[in-house]
Write a structure and sequence with these properties.
single chain; alpha/beta; two-stranded antiparallel sheet; 6 helices; globular
Length: 189
């Protein structure tokens, strides 16, 4: 019996289409209990920011992030799954979001230009990353100097998530909250 899956850059297996649809349903239920805007308020998105939702999935945070950055800001919605990008495109059209750009990643590589983002958030996905160093290198490439990464544990122990972040040598954890860690780019030579 063959299962539905596909390979994406760096031989990473993407979630099956059925798995993605089930995840999307679970996120809709989660969002009724924990509205996405509440977490984004805690993260601290301001008007005019360039924000990257890396691993955006079905786009749970996109509408609120778009409103928070306003007309002067931009939100990049990045994911490896084509159904995620299709979902974000539907949301853009349905809600008239003019400051959201969907970006299909190839493995851990996106087409976002170097030093673009004021803030990157990667929520509920870090556990699925097979090569944390490559992933964190990509995020480091697209964040502006002085920018910030907000990342949660992603269904793994906090210590495991911290170890992966610090092992990259590219990020310093500057704050830990129950819901996430706030990181800044480390000084590199």
């Amino acid at each position: 019996m063959m299962t539905e899956s596909r390979k994406t850059g760096r031989n990473r297996e993407a979630m099956s289409g059925i798995g993605f649809r089930l995840m999307s349903l679970m996120f809709r239920i989660r969002n009724m209990v924990n509205p996405p805007g509440e977490l984004l308020n805690e993260i601290g998105i301001d008007d005019g920011m360039v924000v990257v939702d890396y691993g955006c999935g079905p786009g749970s945070y996109i509408k609120d992030a778009s409103a928070m950055v306003g007309a002067a800001g931009m939100v990049y919605a990045v994911d490896i799954h084509e159904l995620a990008i299709a979902s974000v495109r539907k949301l853009i059209q349905k809600e008239g979001l003019k400051n959201v750009v969907p970006v299909q990643a190839n493995g851990y590589t996106s087409s976002i230009e170097d030093h673009t983002a004021d803030l990157i958030y990667a929520l509920d996905m870090f556990h699925a990353i097979g090569d944390p160093d490559a992933f964190l290198t990509e995020l480091h490439r697209i964040v502006k100097p002085g920018g910030m990464l907000v990342i949660d544990d992603g269904h793994q122990p906090r210590e495991a998530a911290k170890e992966k972040i610090l092992h990259s040598g590219l990020w310093e954890i500057t704050e830990e909250r129950d819901a996430f860690m706030r990181c800044t780019p480390a000084e590199t030579e």
